Amino acid sequence: MDDNSSLTSGAANQSVPLWRDEFSVSQSGERYVNRRQLAKFLTLTSLGMFAGNVWVVVRSWFRKTPVYGRTVVARAGEIPVGGVKLFRYPRPGEQCIMVRTSEETYVAYSQKCTHLSCAVFYSRQDNRIECPCHQGYFSVQDGSVLQGPPTRPLPRVVLRREGDELIAIRMEPEI
Question: For the chain, how big is the Rg over CA atoms in Å?
Fold first, then answer.
């Protein structure tokens, strides 16, 4: 009879998992956070944010100014007054636009809109650079914003004329 009673008591004990005895946490109290847990969370979050800020500062200290190469963009007279030429500068993936505004004046800008990076184009009839995505307009003389969502001017490509060659030498402001 002792064997049968031990079997029934063993079956009754198996219905309650062993880990419930090991971890006496009530389920109703699990959804509340105590002060120690909150303090630990806030401390670790603050340390993480501090480490992120230190990383940004250290990276800005060691950031090198980009070195721009010299790229021949066009020959003087190759483009008619009011004409446009597309070229890549300072890297092969960066598209730029050059406009001949008068007989002796050439201007060049990054072709990427400063709002959402859409490709801009020159509108000869309005004498401005336009972004077709959100109707942003830029001055062709200096790249400043005339209208629309963009808040920053277009990055300008500095051109130097050497003989009859127009050479891109750097970007302003640096991208």
Answer: 33
Q: Which amino acid is at 25?
A: V
Question: What are the tens digits of pLDDT across the range 40-56?
Answer: 999 999 999 999 999 99
Beta strands 136-139 and 128-131, pairing class: antiparallel
Measured between alpha carbons, how far is 116 from 133 in angstroms, rounded to an integer?
Answer: 8
Spatial separation of the C-alpha atoms in residues 162 and 31, rounded to whole Å: 74
Domain boundaries of the chain, sorted by first residue: 2-61, 71-172
| pTM value > 0.85 | no
Task: Tell me which fold the domain 71-172 belongs to.
Answer: Rieske Iron-sulfur Protein (2.102.10)
> Strand, helix or coil at 106?
strand
